[in-house]
Structures are given as structure tokens and as C-alpha cells.
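### Sample
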Amino acid sequence: MAEKKAFILRINPEVLKELECWAAEEFRSTNGQIEYLLQQALNARKKSKKKTGDK
């Protein structure tokens, strides 16, 4: 498994509260939920780039 890098994230308190609730609903940690959402966004971006032919 790849090594993970820690970093500080500044986030709006209301957004954090929503993320915490969402993570709990999906049985993930808040960190896991953020990582999952970022991965989904990156995958979608890669897909859209393939469709348009961008590199």
C-alpha cells in the first residue's frame, strides 16, 4: 500500500459538520470520506478528459 501524506485542511465548520454526518451514514471516518470524494472527483475528471481527447 502506498504511503499516505498528512496535511492540514482548513474547512468551513458547516461543511465539516455535513461531511461528518455523511461519513457516519456511509460507515467511514471523516478523513476516509474526504479521500473517497476526492478520488471520485479525480476519476470523473480523468473520464471527461478521455472523452474530449485532452491530455
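The helical segments are 13-25, 30-52. This sample (Arc family DNA binding domain-containing protein) is used throughout the tutorial notebook.
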